[in-house]
């Protein structure tokens, strides 16, 4: 049997299955889930928020001093600027305001992910600086979508499903004039990087570098003087060959820390 010819014949016969299989594979990727989450938020905002009062600006990438920051959605209104971070997740969600990481649990499997409130903090601060806003004029909103359930008490700005719309509508104190609203919209749109594949790739590379830097082990500080430590190897004595951290100010300071490795 000529296996290559049989395979080619099957491929010709069932060619229509190829795009279906590719589509099924895509639906399981984090990228696709992220896109669908953002689509849900867009649709809910357009249906439930008055277009005359609330102005939705999706997918905003802004330059920063160390690269870029990407914001899923911004809603601008006279009641404030709402910065929305979208999370499309399933299962049980555990977390609190000050925890560094939160937990997603699906049956017996648990996965850690960055606290979205911390993630959105950089977004709000970037906008505050760009727009000249104060804390009472800008709101951080976390919108979880998908079949997920909070298993711990969450702050009011961490929402599930279309609840994020209710949170936005709950802010009824006018903190911006109509003139300021128009100016803010123009500033965001003029400073946002062009929506393109290249912009997304550059931002993804920037995020990857940040994660790599955080995961890189840092040298400890000297317990005696606070200066940086340098890894060294003992050349004599009973600990010869063992590695340790010695103060970079040696011989002025002789602080050491044993290498736990």
Report helical residue fraction. Answer: 25-40%
Counting DSSP E segments of at least 2 residues, the number of strands comes to 12
Q: Could you say how many structural domains there are in total?
A: 2
Span between termini: 58 Å
Structural notes for this entry:
The chain has 261 residues and is α/β, with parallel strands linked by helices. The protein folds into two domains: 32-200, no CATH class; 218-261, N-terminal domain of TfIIb. The chain is built from seven helices and twelve strands. It has helices at 3-13, 17-27, 30-48, 116-131, 163-170, 178-191, 197-215, and strands at residues 55-64, 67-77, 80-88, 91-94, 101-106, 109-114, 138-145, 148-150, 158-160, 229-233, 243-247, 256-258. The chain has a five-stranded mixed β-sheet with strand order 1-2-3-7-9, sandwiched between helices. Strand 4 (91-94) and strand 5 (101-106) form a beta hairpin. The model has no long low-confidence stretch (mean pLDDT 81).
In terms of topology, how is this protein built?
Blueprint: H1 3-13, H2 17-27, H3 30-48, E1 55-64, E2 67-77, E3 80-88, E4 91-94, E5 101-106, E6 109-114, H4 116-131, E7 138-145, E8 148-150, E9 158-160, H5 163-170, H6 178-191, H7 197-215, E10 229-233, E11 243-247, E12 256-258
Parallel strand pairs: 3-7, 4-8, 7-9
Antiparallel strand pairs: 1-2, 2-3, 4-5, 5-6, 10-11, 11-12
């Amino acid at each position: 049997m000529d296996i290559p010819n049989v395979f080619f014949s099957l491929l010709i016969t069932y060619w229509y299955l190829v795009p279906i299989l590719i589509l099924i594979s895509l639906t399981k990727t984090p990228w696709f889930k992220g896109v669908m989450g953002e689509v849900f938020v867009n649709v809910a905002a357009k249906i439930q928020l008055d277009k005359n009062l609330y102005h939705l600006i999706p997918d905003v990438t802004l330059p920063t001093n160390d690269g870029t920051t990407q914001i899923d959605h911004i809603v601008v209104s006279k009641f404030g600027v709402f910065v929305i971070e979208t999370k499309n997740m399933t299962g049980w969600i555990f977390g609190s305001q000050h925890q560094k990481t939160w937990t997603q649990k699906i049956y017996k499997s648990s996965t850690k992910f960055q606290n979205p409130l911390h993630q959105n903090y950089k977004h709000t601060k970037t906008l505050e600086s760009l727009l000249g806003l104060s804390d009472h004029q800008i709101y951080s909103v976390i919108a979880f979508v998908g079949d997920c359930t909070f298993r711990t008490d969450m702050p009011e700005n961490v929402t599930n499903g279309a609840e994020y719309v209710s949170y936005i509508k709950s802010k009824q104190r006018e903190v911006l004039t109509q003139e300021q609203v128009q100016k803010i919209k123009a500033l965001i749109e003029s400073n946002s990087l062009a929506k393109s594949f290249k912009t997304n790739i550059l931002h993804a590379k920037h995020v990857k570098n940040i994660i790599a830097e955080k995961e890189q082990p840092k040298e400890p500080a000297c317990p005696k003087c606070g200066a940086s430590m340098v890894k060294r190897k003992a050349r004599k004595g009973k600990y010869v060959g063992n590695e340790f951290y010695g103060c970079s100010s040696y011989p002025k300071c002789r602080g050491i820390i044993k290498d736990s490795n």
